[in-house]
Amino acid sequence: MPETQLVTAAIFTGLSEMALVQKEVKSPGLGEVLLDVKAEGVCGSDLHYYHISAEAMESHTQPRKHTTTPGHEIAGIVESVGQGVSHLKPGDRVTVQHYSGCGHCLSCRKGWDNHCQNNTVYSLDRDGGYQDKVIVEARDCVFLPSELSFGAGAFLACGASTAYQALHRANIPLGGIVAIIGLGPVGLAALAWAKAFGVRAFGIDPVPERLEFATSLGFESHDSKDFDITCIAPDGVDSVIDTSGNIHGRRTASRIAKVWGTVVLVGFGPGYDIDPVKDVIMRQSTIKGSFVFSMPVMMEAVADAVKLGLDLDPILTVCCVLEDAPAAIADFANGSIGKTTIIWP
Predict the structure, then answer these.
(1) pLDDT value at 341 more than 50
(2) Quick check: 107 and 116 in contact, CB under 8 A?
């Protein structure tokens, strides 16, 4: 039997309740590493499970057991490595791609583990990062340069790299303008990337506190209530990225894109109310979905964050220790501004 150690974990117990529990973590096996978690981001998708019952988690579109530790935005330090791991060593700083594929299918060979039919997901099929230490696959790890904080590394494990991929999908022409709908963490990251790339971008959101926060970070932002695109771009914008995941944001995205414009849908949520003739056909629009990112894209995002001097830390507004995670996540569920992140000393 492998050696084990006890760690503290925060789990969803159902109906907006959490508990701190003790869990056993084994030594790393073949191809695995034991990660000393240093930062874990709280993602909006976590709330899909936070609000429902323990039983409902198991029948969700992406099912999970409530005893599985949540958290898929993981960054930390390698504590030990298992057999067959040669590219990582104890002490290495890493962030983790949260979709772990089979490694053999065509999607995995291309780096798109999130499209593998037999993948596992940290926080759904296996324990995630809301715990002191966690076992991860060595091939899911991306080196985290010292120029980036662990908090930024955790953000790059999902939200910030999702924004990076969406911008690449947006086909923004030279000198073009991109609109970002929704100023949650992914929307803010998209604005930060756009600024780093030298692309004009602006955000749209109905929440005054979100608008104020985005403005304080130096981003152009506009209230979605009575928003008039002609005041900014008379013919519409070249590209629009919807991170809101709601029917109103998607409708706005289609209607502010110019003729031949591109609309990228990122945010999860039901409903898409558009006029296919007026909003798509007669505009000759391109509408794309963008679902997280590949491993190569994540590696590029980390490298570009260093090369471009991208500073994600100002977006991390709430940083708490694991013991305070239940209160911080309740605050996040109530609409806290910016990014909530669990930090270990």
Answers:
(1) yes
(2) yes
pLDDT tens track for 24-81: 999 999 999 999 999 999 999 999 999 999 999 999 999 999 999 999 999 999 999 9
Q: Distance between CA 111 and CA 298 in Å, rounded?
A: 10
How far does CA 312 lie from the centroid of its chain? 13
- Chain mean position to CA 73: 7
Rounded Cα distance, 124 and 153, in Å: 20
pLDDT at 2 over 70: no
Domain of residue 97 covers 4-158+293-343
- Please give the pLDDT value at position 290: 98
Tell me the average pLDDT of the chain. Answer: 97
pTM over cut 0.90: yes
Does one domain contain both 139 and 28?
A: yes
Calpha distance 282→113 (Å, rounded) = 36
pLDDT tens for each residue of 139-149: 999 999 999 99
Residue type present at position 207: V
Q: Are residues 86 and 146 in the same domain?
A: yes
Q: CB neighbours (10 Å) of residue 327?
A: 11
- Distance in angstroms (rounded) separating the CA atoms of residues 129 and 261: 39
pLDDT bin (cut points 50, 70, 90) of residue 1 is very low
Query: What are the strands, taking DSSP E only, across the chain?
Result: 4-12, 18-26, 32-41, 73-81, 93-96, 99-100, 120-121, 133-137, 141-143, 177-181, 200-205, 220-223, 237-242, 257-265, 286-289, 318-320, 340-343
Provide the CATH number for the domain around residue 251.
3.40.50.720
Do 49 and 183 belong together in one domain? Answer: no
